[in-house]
């Protein structure tokens, strides 16, 4: 195993697998290792036995839940925005040929104790139960402005400078009330907190455009999801890396990093073997002395025997509970998929409720989300640390990803991939479409 590589990647979480695939396509000699004997790391999908082994060691799954192979339970479920960055990663690398997708049937938001569909366009705004008649008209005008605003045509700006004026000022111009601002900012623009209100409006306007364009692509909601769960995503990028000469080693623990006299990494040690590389990319669990904890995320994986109430019995849904609605600093997310997505046995539904921990009673913090689910057949609760690198990696050439957050979408994961790529290569990530000869 005493070989030289350009890059060693440790951990097969989605972030690491995307980078491994992209670097291989870019001509780098990549070695990818994981201490686990399966792909996915924190973003793996588990069968029934693996699920019970992880959360209830020593307990076998009840027979009524069916066969192992009927279950692919995501540890960290996230949906894909149909026009979002993760889909661009997939299409530009041709990884889509390894995967099948199904639309998520609804996007809902919690307001005043009830859930309602998020209006994605002017027509839906007028029929939404979230607003009174006058607020509906104001919302319609706001969405029309967002859709029509073009940089090159000042007449579409309506006197608003999106690069200078804050979202608070934009909301004020359209007279939108606090509840409407909540679902625009959190369920459409998918902001994690209310700091965006003080920022220039440009980013939020772009995010709302992305949401609306993603809905237009398929109809019912902006989200899609791979059949058989997210566990196939890391494997798809691993296949891409292998096509371009990347080497994979599972079940290979890493005991230490090797450095030269100047403090730069030169390789990693696994048992008695050393592999050399100029750069190492890893998830936080491989470099505990180089990361800091920024918080924790609580997730409850719930098995249901029915669709989530008040969602018109659809087979899948995302629900965002904006933090202001329940007196919190962070939103609560509910993601639900079903046997239609090949992730659970027939007539079962999988719902995951998550948020950033704010108190010493994490499960209580997701209670509002749990209450929306109706009777829960089985529940598995976990609390995971949120970690990020202390340094950017340019000094020692060890580049560390961030932990997966509580959101039920991929936008923040893609931000991390872009950030890592720039730190690793010194250049912004430009997604190049592979030509036919390469793809063959």
TrEMBL record:
Q: Which InterPro entries match?
A: FAD/NAD-bd_sf, GDP_dissociation_inhibitor, RabGDI
Q: What Pfam families does its record include?
A: GDI
Identify one Gene Ontology CC term for this UniProt entry: cytoplasm
Q: In which domain of life is the source organism classified?
A: Eukaryota
Q: Name one GO molecular function term.
A: Rab GDP-dissociation inhibitor activity
- Which GO biological process annotations does it have? protein transport; small GTPase-mediated signal transduction; vesicle-mediated transport
Q: Give the UniProt family note.
A: Belongs to the Rab GDI family.
What protein is this chain from?
Answer: Rab GDP dissociation inhibitor
**From which source organism is this entry?**
Circinella minor
